Amino acid sequence: MLCEYKKILRPFDVNGFIPNLILIFPRVLMGYFLAFKYAPNKFGTPWTPDYMNLSMFEVSKEFVDHIAFQGFPFDTMPFLFAWSIGFMEAVGGLLLIIGLNTRVTSFFVFLTMAMGIFFRKWDGSWDILPVFLFFCMGMFYMGFGAGRYSLDYRLSQYVL
Question: Whole-model pTM?
Answer without folding.
Answer: 0.88
